[in-house]
Amino acid sequence: MNPTVKDVKPQENYTLLLTFANGEVKLFDVKPYLDKGIFSELKDLSLFNSVHPDGLSIEWDNEAAFCPDTVYLESVKI
Questions:
Q1: Contact 48, 12 (CB under 8 A)
Q2: Which domains can be identified in the chain, with CATH numbers?
Q3: Global pTM?
């Protein structure tokens, strides 16, 4: 099982700075998902900036969420 998200900070250009429970800090690019289903609502920057940890991964105020494996495996170390 991959580590859980402990902190998330929205960045420019629809990216997220993620801090994981194991101490790793990674950058996750949301742009590839912005034309898919509920994630298209995140084009609204006020909604995009509402991202928060949900105990395992990340979630937005519109209830869009990514599974912990996706955000860990698809993000890049910085």
A1: no
A2: 5-77 (3.30.2020.10)
A3: 0.95
